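Database export, one record per block. Field names are fixed; values are copied verbatim from the stored entry.
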Amino acid sequence: MNMGKMDRIIRAILGITVVLIAFLAVSGVAQIVLWVIGAILILTAAIGFCPLYAPFHFSTKKQIK
């Protein structure tokens, strides 16, 4: 797990927003692209892991000292 609580909340809100935009405002290829982006944001928020952070050893999770 490499995502902090705030990172997860922001991703979830953005993901839901993108999915709603895809559902209500666009069609065609743009709709599919927004569905995929929204789903990825929601999934990474739910599991708390971002695969793009891993290769760079980046984490937004607070470290316990």
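Remark 1: The two ends are 17 Å apart (CA to CA).
Remark 2: The helical segments are 5-24, 29-47.
End of record.
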